[in-house]
Design brief:
The chain has 299 residues and is α/β, with parallel strands linked by helices. The protein has ten helices and seven strands. The chain has one domain: Rossmann fold (3-Layer(aba) Sandwich).
Length: 299
């Protein structure tokens, strides 16, 4: 006899609070760049839901303060909203020192500040290419360099937010893919050099995650349905999917995981259909032009 109830969706996501102990990160401190919005905000929120105090660092000071106030809404939660430019090492260092002054330590670091836009190589200016490299790769380096002294004291852990763009190649994404390939390589070297000091380092590579600026700005609305249909998981990812992966890597369950990339993409990278984003190769052969965004968009 068939049931009238619909079957649950394949690979359904779940909030971290249904999986991890509430106090798993009690007494610990997270420092997160890009934490004022998007995926990194969700990562920070999940860490705080399990006892962690946090400092979020972003370019827009008012947004950082507003987001920190929202994250502090839960009883007992503490979050600092700090501002600066990840491309400026002193700016990051000042924020790290303020975090330590307020909270006494740093145990976890998320390097998540990023910028992106759609462009073929020929149309991307040297300045545009350099800007993405500086935000993504140099920003990750500056974040790691500024926090390593604290992480060596606490035997802490780093997660850099990477991507699946650089696996093979992705049309119109040479700038971002090059930056993320550099981030992946940098993290492997951090794991190699600082493992003996008790520091772990990994990357998380999100695939198509719903309700993020990256999806909204980089994937045309008419392509989103096609994306879902082609994914092995048969759904877009959620911010909870990335948050759960973050908690796993930072928790004792991930204690023997370092120098690796955790791909969280519902199987997207197994398919690598360029037509998910644009009509390849016609988009190149027909000389399609793209409106440049007023500002770099977060991934």
């Amino acid at each position: 006899m068939s049931s009238s109830k619909a079957a649950p969706p394949f690979h359904a996501s779940a909030p971290s609070t249904s999986i991890f102990k509430d106090d798993i990160f009690a007494g610990k401190v997270l420092f997160c760049t890009g934490g004022a919005s998007g995926i990194c905000y969700a990562q920070t929120k999940a860490m705080m839901a399990h006892g962690c105090r946090a400092a979020i660092f972003g370019r827009r000071g008012e947004l950082s303060k507003k987001s920190a106030a929202e994250l502090e809404a839960a009883p007992g939660s503490k979050c600092l909203g700090l501002s600066g430019d990840v491309r400026n090492h002193q700016s990051i260092l000042d924020a790290v020192q303020e975090t330590v002054r307020q909270f006494g330590r740093i145990d976890f670091v998320i390097a998540g500040a990023a910028g992106n836009f759609l462009s073929p190589i020929e149309a991307a200016s040297p300045n545009a290419f350099r800007t993405v490299i500086e935000i993504d790769l140099l920003g990750t380096f500056n974040t790691i360099k500024a926090t390593l002294p604290e992480l060596k004291k606490t035997h802490g852990s780093i997660i850099a937010v990477s991507a699946v763009l650089q696996q093979g190649a992705t049309v119109l994404q040479a700038h971002a893919a090059s930056a993320k390939a550099g981030v992946d390589t940098l993290i492997r070297h951090v794991a190699l050099e600082y493992g003996p000091f008790g520091v772990r380092a990994n990357t998380i590579a999100p695939g198509p995650i719903a309700d993020t600026e990256g999806i909204d700005r980089l994937v045309p609305p008419e392509q989103k349905g096609k994306t879902v249909n082609k994914l092995p998981a048969q759904r877009m990812g959620t911010k909870d999917d990335i948050a759960n992966s973050t908690l796993y890597l930072f928790s004792p369950a991930g204690a023997y995981v370092t120098g690796t990339q955790l791909v969280v993409d519902g199987g997207d990278s197994l398919i690598k259909l360029q037509n998910m984003i644009v009509d390849y190769p016609n988009v190149l052969l027909e000389g399609t032009t793209f409106a440049r965004p007023a500002k770099s968009s977060k991934l």
